[in-house]
Amino acid sequence: MDYKLTFKDYSKALTKGTLLGLKCKTCGNITTPPKMTCQECGGTDLEVVEVKKKGKIVTFTNVSVAPEGRQNEVPYIIVLVRLDEGPWIMGNLIDIDPASANMDLIGRDVSVGFKIFPGDKFSPGDQARPVFSFS
Questions:
Q1: What percent of the chain is modeled with pLDDT above 70?
Q2: Are residues 81 and 65 located together in one domain of the fold?
Q3: How many domains does the chain have?
Q4: Are residues 46 and 60 in the same domain?
Q5: Which of 58, 18, 54 is nearest to 132 (CA)?
Q6: Residues 78, 128: one domain?
Q7: CA 92, CA 125: separation in Å to the nearest integer?
Q8: What is the per-residue pLDDT across 51-84, written as a single tens digit (0 to 9) for each?
Q9: How many other CB atoms are found less than 10 A from the CB of residue 100?
Q10: Which residue, among 13, 10, 14, 31, has the nearest Cα to 22 in the 3D structure?
Q11: Which end of the chain has fewer surrounding CB within 10 Å, N or C?
């Protein structure tokens, strides 16, 4: 089975301001970031689509202890966002001081952007990842 959308192509599209996903031709669900199969029904008949870059924060966590090689980035906030088309994606919330984060973040409207994160010993190098800012 071939990837319809590789993570490399997904990352490259992010750097151009485009959020891509995979729409299942069986159930209509949109999956992002890319996977081999639909995360709803497991179908493999997928097409690459552009996803709107708007959503709402579902939950968040403050990160105070960074993974290896990222100690200079703490503290930061990771949010789980439900996009308007349905998929849930994670990324950094960049519009707020992590010390002031509280439950009022839940349900807030956000827009998707991107940031290039440096590679480490666990990744293939620098890559774009979603980041979120308040709409």
A1: 96
A2: yes
A3: 2
A4: no
A5: 54
A6: yes
A7: 19
A8: 999 999 999 999 998 777 666 778 999 999 999 9
A9: 9
A10: 31
A11: N
Q: What confidence score (pLDDT) does residue 9 get?
A: 93
Is the same domain home to 124 and 110?
yes
Q: How far apart are CA 85 and CA 76, in angstroms?
A: 26
Q: In the chain, which residue ranges form alpha helices assigned H by DSSP?
A: 7-15
Check pLDDT > 80 for residue 16. yes
My answer on whether 45 and 82 are in the same domain is no
> Which pairing describes strands 127-134 and 109-117: parallel, antiparallel, or unpaired?
antiparallel
Rounded-to-integer distance, Cα 88 and Cα 9, Å: 19
Residue 39: give the domain boundaries: 1-51
Q: What are phi and psi of 73, to 5 degrees?
A: -100, -10
* Selected residue with higher pLDDT from 122 and 15: 15
Between CA 96 and CA 128 the distance in angstroms is 20
Q: Do the Cβ atoms of 12 and 6 come closer than 8 Å?
A: no
Shared-domain flag, residues 71 and 129: yes
